[in-house]
Amino acid sequence: MFSLPASLLALAAVSHASPILVRDTNDTNPFVFTNYNGLNFTQMNTTLSNVTIFATGGTIAGSSGSALATTGYTAGAVGILTLIDAVPEILNVSNVAGVQVSNVGSEDVTSTLLLSMSKQINTFVCEDLTMAGAVVTHGTDVLEETAFFLDATVNCGKPVVVVGAMRPSTAISADGPYNLLEAVTVAASPLSRDRGSMVVMNDRIVSSYYVTKTNANTMDTFKAPEMGNLGEMISDTPYFFYPPVKPTGKRAYSIMNITSIPRVDILFAYEDMSNDTLYNAVASGAKGIVIAGAGAGGVSTSFNYAMEDVINNHGIPIVQSTRAMSGEVPISDVSSDTALHIASGYLNPMKSRILLGLLLAHNKNMTEIADAFLGSTDD
Ligand SMILES: *[C@@H]1O[C@H](CO)[C@@H](O)[C@H](O)[C@H]1NC(C)=O
Ligand SMILES: *[C@@H]1O[C@H](CO)[C@@H](O)[C@H](O)[C@H]1NC(C)=O
Ligand SMILES: *[C@@H]1O[C@H](CO)[C@@H](O)[C@H](O)[C@H]1NC(C)=O
Ligand SMILES: *[C@@H]1O[C@H](CO)[C@@H](O)[C@H](O)[C@H]1NC(C)=O
Ligand SMILES: *[C@@H]1O[C@H](CO)[C@@H](O)[C@H](O)[C@H]1NC(C)=O
Ligand SMILES: *[C@@H]1O[C@H](CO)[C@@H](O)[C@H](O)[C@H]1NC(C)=O
Ligand SMILES: *[C@@H]1O[C@H](CO)[C@@H](O)[C@H](O)[C@H]1NC(C)=O
Ligand SMILES: *[C@@H]1O[C@H](CO)[C@@H](O)[C@H](O)[C@H]1NC(C)=O
Asked: Per the record, what are the reactions this protein catalyses (predicted)?
């Protein structure tokens, strides 16, 4: 004989009698409901939407010994349950299940982790009719890359809301709890469907396709400088400025059969730029290269010759993006008669890197890669 935890007995006792299961705070097992995918819920109110929170770590999960410190805390120190417990208001909005994908600062997120998380979102959220959407908690430093990857690889119409925090959870006026509540609210809302992945922070709803971290320190950092916000949160209620719309140039890719993403390096352009960084990247095994070019994709003359050599003689695709905060790289600014230069259009170097990696993972050839970037470019 073995004894069932009280919460399981409670579940067995009430699952037919009541559509509402709440957590028994005296029980060491905090979960009252486990769905067919093995996802655990701390509450089940069947009239509410269901949202799965995929936790990767980062500042939103950070803790610090001092309520005044906004630096020096250990990112990823606080787990998913603590996250939910810190914001009980979430349970008025949605039933939430948690999946701990990793517990790292965002700088340690890898393409292996992105593939694994995207597959889990496709399986646990897209394929489950009872699930309204997904929330991804993430460190903010490379959040825009993860958000872009999920936008490209989860395309079932359900919202994937990526959220982080700029202040640690122990700071005065920490932004994590309210950001998390807003993120769950957006993920649970039917208004959020068919808008791709979104970043919800600081009361703004921004498209993951375009969003970038514009400030290294402040809370009002995630913006799409030219394209603007999709909507705003007022008293934890989403207001979308327009009906659902797909970003121009966006394409969707399935990663369900992809096991790895080839290496793509980013090289930054500057005065006196020599060409050896390019050859070093090739020698180190890069299968694709993105240039954070000066202005509309510009590089030095010597570097440009080397790029043509690498494109033509090594068969390595090179995407020219811009180191400028906004604007695009049009094809006309990079094209030549001697090699197939690829313009990033409105995709910044980080997003271009993600897209190029996905295309290489799908074994796309140079022309197909150039075509895929075409949609994001002018002329
Ligand atoms: C939890 O334990 C306390 C103290 O033993 C008791 O008063 C309370 O009724 C218990 N709560 C539940 C939900 O069983
Ligand atoms: C759900 O809870 C069970 C039992 O505690 C655990 O084995 C399982 O890993 C949990 N599932 C997830 C997705 O965390
Ligand atoms: C369950 O959710 C509904 C809203 O859909 C709410 O009115 C009700 O109070 C909730 N029940 C509990 C016990 O929280
Ligand atoms: C939430 O999940 C529960 C359990 O799977 C399900 O009974 C309920 O219908 C779901 N809620 C919605 C709004 O789909
Ligand atoms: C949930 O909503 C009810 C009814 O509006 C409110 O009384 C309660 O305080 C809310 N709970 C939380 C944790 O916000
Ligand atoms: C993945 O591979 C399986 C088996 O080869 C195939 O049936 C399926 O269509 C593939 N799925 C995608 C999305 O490519
Ligand atoms: C790369 O730079 C070196 C040193 O400036 C130069 O000798 C070489 O010709 C350049 N390569 C190309 C392809 O222009
Ligand atoms: C690239 O792929 C396309 C579509 O499969 C094909 O038509 C084209 O011939 C290929 N180009 C090269 C250079 O292999």
From this structure: L-asparagine + H2O = L-aspartate + NH4(+)
pLDDT in tens, 126-184: 999 999 999 999 999 999 999 999 999 999 999 999 999 998 877 899 899 999 999 99
85 lines ligand 5 (CB under 6 A): no
C-beta pairs of 38-41 under 8 Å, 24+ apart in sequence: 39/97, 39/98, 39/99, 39/124, 40/97, 40/98, 41/95, 41/96, 41/97
Question: For ligand 2, is residue 35 a contact (CB within 6 Å)?
Answer: no
Tell me the pLDDT tens digit for each residue of 26-45.
667 778 899 999 998 889 99
CATH 3.90.1570.10 is the classification of domain 6-240: no
Positions of CATH 3.40.50.1170 in the chain: 6-240
Protein residue closest via CA to atom 4 of ligand 8: 368
Active site annotation includes 59? yes
- Minimal-distance CA residue to ligand 3 atom 1: 45
| φ, ψ at 355 (rounded to 5°) | -65, -45
Whole-structure pTM value: 0.90
